[in-house]
């Protein structure tokens, strides 16, 4: 029986960095653009057509995230070259980072897959994950999948985050009891 560690709701989000296309480092979970929360979307990489579709759909929800005070960042284990090639199929304006290491994937508790062939990709890659980090640096919402077919529906996610962020709702971090 495997005993891998998974991040739990309410945990402090680990201090992790990835690289943006301009070569600068970005801290995952640290919001920008005046937001106080950040949604970190981990995607499989350029080889995944479902990731391409999801990232392009995410662009259409960028304003809804911003209205809820949530910055967005997407990251994968791809190389800079792979990300540059992927941009040919992406139409997004939010930051994309590359170079997530297998050790970082493990720190996040992500499922990791082997490529099916060299034509798919040249490295082990993370399956999709979503980490919403609040203003205290804690994991407020987490969604981890072991395959590309299961991801949060973005409309429901943005509406839910707006509701959570409304101070009149006093909505705590859910799922904190672990046995």
Uncertain runs: none
How many domains make up the coordinates?
A: 1
Tally of individual helices? 5
- Indicate the multimeric state: single chain
Strand percentage: 15-25%
| H/E element sequence | EEEHHEHEHEEEEH
Strand order of the largest sheet: 2-1-5-4-3-8-9
What is the CATH architecture annotation? 3-Layer(aba) Sandwich
Summing up helix and strand content along with how strands pair, one would put the structural category as: alpha+beta
Could you name the CATH homologous superfamily?
Glutaredoxin
Please write the CATH class name. Answer: Alpha Beta
What's the count of strands? 9
* Main sheet characteristics: 7 strands, mixed
Distance between the first and last residues' Cα? 17 Å
Indicate the CATH topology.
Answer: Glutaredoxin
The portion of residues assigned to helices is: 10-25%
Query: What is the arithmetic mean of pLDDT?
Result: 93
Gyration radius from CA atoms, angstroms: 16 Å
């Amino acid at each position: 029986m495997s005993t891998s560690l998974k991040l739990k709701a309410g945990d402090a989000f680990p201090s992790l960095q990835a690289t943006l296309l301009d070569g600068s480092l970005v801290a995952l979970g640290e919001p920008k653009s005046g937001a106080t929360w950040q949604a970190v979307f981990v995607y499989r990489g350029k080889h995944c057509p479902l990731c391409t579709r999801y990232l392009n759909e995410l662009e259409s929800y960028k304003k809804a995230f911003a209205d809820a005070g949530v910055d967005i960042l997407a990251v994968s284990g791809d190389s800079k070259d792979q990300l540059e090639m992927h941009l040919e199929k992406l139409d997004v304006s939010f930051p994309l980072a590359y170079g997530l290491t297998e050790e970082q994937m493990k720190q996040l508790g992500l499922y990791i897959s082997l490529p099916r062939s060299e034509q798919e990709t040249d490295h082990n890659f993370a399956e999709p994950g979503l980490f919403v980090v609040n203003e205290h640096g804690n994991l407020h919402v987490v969604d981890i999948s072991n395959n590309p077919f299961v991801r949060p529906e973005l409309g429901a996610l943005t509406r839910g985050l707006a509701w959570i962020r409304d101070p009149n709702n006093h909505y705590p971090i859910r799922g904190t009891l672990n046995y």
